Amino acid sequence: MISLPRKPTSWGLLIIIFALSVLILGVMGAELFLSRVSLLLLIAGLAVYFLGWSYLREAFFPWAFLILMIPIPALMLNQITFPLQVLASKVSAGVLPLFGVPALREGNVIILPAMALEVAEACSGIRSLLSLTTLAIIYGYFMETRLWIRIVLALASVPIAVAANSLRIVGTGLLVQYWDPGKGEGFFHLFSGWLIFVVSLVMLYLLHELLGLFERDSEAQT
């Protein structure tokens, strides 16, 4: 267990004042994001004021990780969601013909012979993307000591989540075309979301194993 010397500093008071200012601005402007961020700033200020900079540096990762608990502002979320809908539609419309299902895409709507599939906002994959990225950061922090692999795992969560969501849409299209159009909703649609997320976690784990194998081979060659 690391024992750190306590070195309180008045710089923490300035951070506290700044955090309270951000809170006031957030409340007056009805901006929840600023109000929530002010809590993190306040925690940092209290740590510096009562314990010192060394304690904040030691706890930097768990403190910074708390940023992920704050919902993305709606304006920014909307800018991300629709492109994800279109991307998932494009990938799915390109893959479905490989399985013998003709598909015509119009925006975020995939027209199949059996019915039209709309890649709605809830099916954009933004929630699974944020969840997978969060888990990738946690996994990398606790399971890996090499910084570059941690970064790769965090970044790789984005294409993995997009690919997994596209796979879910493709599966829904196949289900609708070859089984029953009514199965595209309800239990099977919900269950496929859980199943695909588990697949995403497995893909993340396999990527970690491949990166470790690649580095071991590189070290053996040198």
Write a structural description.
The chain has 222 residues and is mainly α. It has 2 domains: 11-69, no CATH class; 74-221, no CATH class. 70% of the residues lie in helices and 4% in strands. The chain has 8 helices and 3 strands, in the order H-H-H-H-H-E-E-E-H-H-H. The protein has a 3-stranded antiparallel beta sheet, with helices on one face. The chain starts with 10 loop residues before the first helix and ends with a helix. The model has no long low-confidence stretch (mean pLDDT 86).
The neighbouring-strand order within the major sheet is: 1-2-3
Chain-averaged pLDDT: 86
Secondary-structure element order, as H and E? HHHHHEEEHHH
Overall 3D geometry?
Answer: flat
Approximate helicity band: over 70%
Q: What percentage of the residues does DSSP assign to strands (E)?
A: under 5%
Structural class category: mainly alpha
Distance between the termini: 36 Å
User: Low-confidence segments, ≥5 residues, pLDDT <50?
Assistant: none
| Number of DSSP strand runs | 3
CA-atom Rg in angstroms: 23 Å
Please, how many domains?
2
Describe the biggest sheet?
A: 3 strands, antiparallel
Number of helices: 8
Précis, in short:
This protein is mainly alpha-helical and 222 residues long.
SSE arrangement:
Blueprint: H1 11-28, H2 32-50, H3 53-58, H4 60-65, H5 74-95, E1 104-106, E2 109-111, E3 116-118, H6 126-143, H7 147-178, H8 187-221
Antiparallel strand pairs: 1-2, 2-3
